[in-house]
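Protocol step 6 of 9: fold each sequence in the batch and record its structure tokens directly after the sequence line. For illustration, a two-sequence batch is reproduced in full.

Sequence one:
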Amino acid sequence: MVDTPKCLEFCKPARPAGSVAAVALPLLLTIHASGGIETTIDSENTDRAAAVRLALATFPEGTARRVVVIAAGKEDRGPSAGPARPAPAEGPKPQSSATPTLESRLMPLIAAHKGKVAVAVLHLDTGESFRYHASEVMPTASLIKFPVMIEAYRQAAAKQVDLDATLTLKKSDKVPGSGVLTYHFSDGATFKLRDAVRLMIAFSDNTATNLVLDAIGIGATAATMEMLGYPNTKIHAKVFRRDTSVFPERSKQFGLGSTTPDEMIKLCAAVYRKQLVSPAACEEMLGHLRACEDKDKFPRFLPPQTKVAFKTGSLDETRTAAGIIECPGGPVAVCVMSCQNQDKRWVPDNAGNRLCAEIARAVYDHFDRSAAADAKAKKTAENRP
């Protein structure tokens, strides 16, 4: 309902009338109104009734209203300011014609996550990239098993280990957590070191990882990574065997392993480009990575049949993933790392899992659009006379 006229307050300062009153009134209303107004102002006269109509037009229908009119002193006469009318309702804002960037696609996802995040993205053909805290050292969880695989193949090429050597599973080897050996294989089961490597990557098998580390040495991965230019990439100890740590202080700070998104995408790129160990070794390693069973992270929102070679990691407060996504516009190395996460649930819809999945899809869409634009430009060029 509307307040009665007695609630209106008028102020008539003793000064000449003129344009001051006509201009000051709409400015004052504009400051306090929630919506816009449209009217025509006569700069030579003061019309209180028109001013009231102008003010009331700015309020939603059916609400209590209180209006204060400030005039510059002339009699309440003269031509009306014209009927005040509400401004047209604001419709949908036009979409920006600017092409979305990786930053505009990824930053809202990162900003919405409740935890510490670091991300790196690199298109392997064009060099287009995105980095967010990409040089910051982060806990890896099981993602560190990816560099362990690289070291196993390096040692095999150097004849330091034999990937076809037979391993025998003992009860004392079994540790909890992810994998199949502890829960589905009997004591005394035998298999090749190569199979242990595959289990370590495809199923993130903790027992298999420790068997691989027994073969290659715990500190060897960090030493090789440093030699190759990845000084922050280290596995600290055997899984669930903190007493074996070769980096005790880093174990306390980061747990099983540590790295940066920058170093992970460079390693992914090197394997994809077949620049590590040998082309045959890289092809076999890519096969292990493409067999990764974790569908809650990168593959979750990607179109079916999208090729993804990747490794992931999960702990209560940590979710990580790194690998190569083969987008329509070309291969892209992606690493997403989060820790200190508020969501500690062990469910597919964990926020850290979703962050990995949503970033993967955003990257895919970005380079899908790029591919479409390139194809259109190529077709246009071909059709030119």
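Sequence two, same batch, same settings:
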Amino acid sequence: MYKLSARQILGIALLSSVLSAGTVACLDRFGSRLQPSGSAFTEAPAAAVEGVTDPSQVTDERNNIEVYRAISPGVVYITSTSSGGNSFFDQGERSGTGSGAIIDDQGNVLTNDHVVAGSQRLSVSFGGTQKYPARLVGRDPDTDLAVIKVDAPRELLKPVPIGDSDRLVVGQKVLAIGNPFGLDRTLTTGVISGLQRPIPVRGGNGRMIEGAIQTDASINPGNSGGPLLDSQGRMIGINSQIVSPSGGSAGIGFAVPINIAKRVVPQLLRNGYVDRPKLGIYPRAIKDLREQVRLPVTDGLLILQLERGGAAATAGLRGLQSSEDGDVVIGDIITAIDGEKVTDVNDLARILERHKAGDTVQVEVFRDNRRVTVPVRLLPTQNPFRRD
């Protein structure tokens, strides 16, 4: 039984008070992979996209032309409008712009969350000056994805075919269509420069998007939310971020993989949020406590507290406890889940990403100076997302 000194308890308490809000928010990640009945957000069939010839049979220039002509009608220009700040001197409206891709014939549009976050009004144009009203369907800040629905004539709704981001290779040609700086339906081309890049979520909530696609295709402000396409005209990613000291394209852009959207979008269409699997713990990373306390392991997640009736509590995991003589006894330290090492909440999030509520995971913990594996059945988070 490993007991904590008063100084150690104070160290944990002080650190917990500073980090509690952020860490609790980081416990739940990507959830159910079940798609709602009638969802049109599926991978394109093996047959070629209409209007796009087998890329190996035409010149690169011809391929660019065909992909643009076939796909650009499904790429839209999004304008979001919000009220000014709370200051007496800042009462005007603010607007932002971005891009999006039509994903079905119902008018649902896939875009980035940061394009629509905080908006009071949304409008969509299909090129030109005509704008159509749109409304928010659902947001997922953790993956920087959102779905809005536009009220537009059906003949304008041209869904962008969906590809498979798990089959990508570095060096593969890609094309980006969007609205940089308000310039409707601009095409840029490049290659995949890297795969499996972790990138921070826009908005500074401390989360990471795992497995982002890096490309040198020019991406500029206004491209956000637009599709990244393969040479067959299928959407393989959603353009999201750039790395640039100047704010313009520097040849380092990132897209959220379409296979992440395949997990998230059906839930946004169905619920308006992502129902993530939940372990039901309030942890601290051991690496963040090393300077404050001495603990029996060097890496892992120390469980400070359990949610009453939560998955971890039901399975018998332990948080900090009091002994009969009033000492504080250390709780379980999670060191691995399903055989994968866990050192911080991002590791936990990445592992839970592959599961849905109802799945059972094998949680390895350090307890009473030995390692124990405990099966835990994950529970859902009920409506964790609140619209701004």
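Proceed to step 7 once all outputs are recorded. Observation for sequence two: The CA atoms of residues 44 and 162 lie 5 Å apart.
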